[in-house]
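Quick one - inputs below.
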Amino acid sequence: MSKYPTSVKKVDFPEKISGKAKYADDFVFPDMQYAKTVRSTIPCGKIKKITVPKLPDGYYWISAKDIVKENVVNIIFSDWPVFADGRVNYCGEAIGIFVGEDKAILDKLCEEIKVEYEPETPIYDFSEAYISKGYKKGDYEAAKKKAKQVVRRTYQTGYQEQAYIEPQGLVLYYDESGKMTITGSMQCPFYVKRAVMRTLGLKDDEVRVIQPAVGGAFGGKEHYPSLIGAQLATASYKIHKPIKMVFERYEDIAYSTKRHPSKTEMEALIDENKNIIGIKSKVSLNGGAYKGCSGVVLSRALIAATNAYVIPNLDISGDVYRTNTVPTAAFRGFGSPQTIFAMEMFIHHIAKEIGVDPLELRMKYLAKQGDITANSGKFHDPIVLDKLFEKAMEMSDYKRKIAEYSKPGSLRGIGMSCFLHGCGFTGSGESDIIHAKVKVSKDENDHVTCYASSVDMGQGCRTTLKHIVAKNLGLPDDEVEMDYPDTDKTPDSGPTAASRTIIIVGFLMEKAAKNLKKIWKKGVAQEIIEPYVGPSYIHWDEETMQGDAYPSYSWGVNVVEVEFSPVTFEITLKGVWSVYDVGRVVDERIAVGQADGGVLQGIGYGFMENETCVDGKFKQRSLSDYIIPTTMDVPHMETAFIDNPFIYGADGAKGMGELTLVGGAPAVALAIENAIGKEIHKIPATPEYIMEVLKDGKN
Amino acid sequence: MAKIKFNLNHKDVEVELDPSTRLIDVLREHFGLKGVKEGCGEGSCGACVVLLDGYSVNSCLLPLANVEGHEVITIEEFSKTKRFEVLKEAFADEGATQCGFCSPGMIIAGESLLSHNPHPTEEEAREALSGNLCRCTGYQSIVHAVLEASKKGEGLW
Amino acid sequence: MVKKYIAYSLDEALDILASKDVYIVAGGSDMMVQKKNTAGLLPKFDKDVLYVSHIDELKKVYEDKDGIHIGAGAHLSDLENNKLVPELLRKCISEVASVNIRHFATLAGNIANASPAGDTIVIDVLLDAEVVLVSKKGIRKVKAEDFVLGVRKIDRHQDELIKELIFPVHKFDKELWHKVGSRKADSISKLSFAGVYSLLGDKVKEFRCAFGSVAIKVMRSHELEKEIEGMSLSELNAQKDELIEKYSHVIAPIDDQRSNKEYRQKVAMNILAKFLDEIIKGGK
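Output:
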């Protein structure tokens, strides 16, 4: 008897488990060359002179001067150069690449090249804002006049490294027709394609991107591969040979994008009846040297500023700051883990300061269907947060434990977070910007194939998307094909990001399959191309940040139990319980896998994963020093889902990829707080930080 | 350069390479055994784990010199066994593979455990897999899969 | 071009060592990280290398009148499961690196690499192990404590090979190994502590403790140990704070990518305090 009787076989499982699946570094082509990056050794300054050593035959130096069309990586805000041109803005910025067939010679060339700089004073603090956003709800200033008490706190979050087990890497080669083709570790084949087109000035049919097996991504391979792709394509323009660039682990940790460190200053207005009548939140994100996608990260951080709580008066604003450090970018959660951590801690600290029970206080403000969102839109769909709480508390025995662990002398602690996550692109972005399409076709033998550009990077979308099609056509799963995305064959169904794959692409697959079924003619080749049409009631103004921020929301409650050692200040996880509303679960086994992995990544963010940047350089540059949990760090985890089908989702499904991460950090931080009896204001709450907190009696 | 003989996947092989060559490079580049993955190159992640005389070892840290005269089994060979089938079924049922990059190493670490301790406790299973990092699953499914395999493969180990 | 030698017997190894300045590689788990190069390239050895993992004479573990002999080539995982090996050492080994690495790493390699974070060195020093060095000229024995001179510096002559470590057979009433890593497994120590003691009536008959990862090498104070030995438990109780204060000057931790000096200092003393408390309680 299978553990998950309703789940289907994962399509890529047999090749992955037996080691046959091909990842970036497994591709080998005749006459293949390697590329190695020469990086800036200073955080900022002008490049005065580059002295390239004498190149052996067949070796090339590719830099800004070799740019064919435009020296920019095509990201949302295109300010990041493919190769530094005249100046560098962070330690590790690519100045150029050496290309040739022997890696040892490439290393030698990288050692011999001389780059002379005119250093400038770097910025590392929150002093130079380069993106600012904000919105208001109600009248915060008027509410402030009525307030009887004001509570203030500041919260900080650190860097987080995606730490996918497969490092970044791409391989460029020429397909059977001679077309430039790129394969490798990536989340968004069309992003890589467009980046290459823009840098080289190529037409749509002049470059092809094919995704192979991807060894984890978590946001880290959303934009960064566009940089590598543009570099390799620039080199290939000169060299016309296959080129492989696979990062060493230190290179990946030290120079690829990470989660934005943040500071959130919060203020709550309390009236005479101990109601929260207003919240002000000022969010600061460290964006690093280039903006890239940071504007959207800020936007999503601000939208989540009051998390799952509905407060009448809000003043929410934030800035992304330029620093001379590695640019920060996408990471599962995309801004919301930072602000949801802050809000979850804050509501507890408000409760403590005004003398009410934290659980009662948060219950009072939980969002309900029909409520006005922070951005003055509406929660259109049914919300079952009360059921989530009930189930989570029952599973974890929360009420008994919180009472027991709150007694002085207890070394145990329990923490509970509740949270929401917007599914799909912000606002009406899916309808207005992405214009996702999918294709479902059948040949004369009635053999069905479905096409989407969604990348299976472990989350199982090749299995679930195919299953949705098979189910709606009334076919067994193994009678439907779905291959890896290939930009020559696959319509652009948008990036694999923003928890949009099931709710948007899955929904399209469902519609396409239904439409194919309607016109199904036996023995005739037919195809359906399905474009996305979102709910018509969703309206959003990006400028004012007013309206419906997302097509829909998923919801969750996490409970974490810990034990604290007063001798070493170490935290041991003792249990994790999670309940989610992801609409309707498409495949339980895959959903539980997402949930377990996501919550652990969130918990790791909260108490373990420490990446510090000193003088523009990361101190932790290996998987021995950047610590992620092992089997021994993880306790028993239990996950449940509450069924709450969404009318615009595939078979009622909503997004869940990011949702499962965002509640981990506040839950573990609140558990630690409960165990040590002091407030936590910063994550990761490492033993070193906990020692500091306990030393500081003021807390 | 030196001629070095060892037993690879039940075949006697001889290579002429520098004895300092990392075993992972010998396996991937020389023998094309791409199921052996490199995640960190310094023994932290376990993606490159192979069996050396039946024990899981990090092939990124083993110089070829140390392999001489020994038996190396990679996922390519192990995946032909009945034990693998049992582990595979358990991994499939639990959903213990997501991105798959750690999977060959996990399977080898699981085999190394079960071949020396056919009935591990959960604690022993966690311990045995603790040198193999996974960023997707949260480990729960992997630990359960190895324990399930131990039950279902009764007599095989 | 550096040369690589593989020795198949002790004599062969000593012949090479007599004439060459070489890196000695046993399991390789530490050297291969230290000399790590780009994937696909040879490790960066800047002088000749001698591989010693095939020498059977180095793999023996046995007991005689001198103590427990642990061959330089014995794998940590074998020692972990060998009842002859001192229990405290086995406990320590069970937390070294990861299971996979313990399958080929060696005890001698750990001390020979002399990392301040080398866990088993703490036990070598605490238990007064001797490092047996052998060369064509003969045998030289050095106490583990004297063998490590500093960060990656050891008292080995160019022609010498570590043959084994000898641990005196000695029973203590209680033994403690406490590793503080960044996580529960597959982790490099932020700091570590090992302590042993025996009581005679209400007096401390024997006391030793050693600290790892909190100075350039493992730190142990014979002076303070002598001061504690002979104390009654009530005297120990009365002087506890003073002793901890004295011990706090024995170590000199630093900030690095794994922790900071304040934490290392405080936690090392916390563990010592807890250990002393146990001794004090143990007598009652």
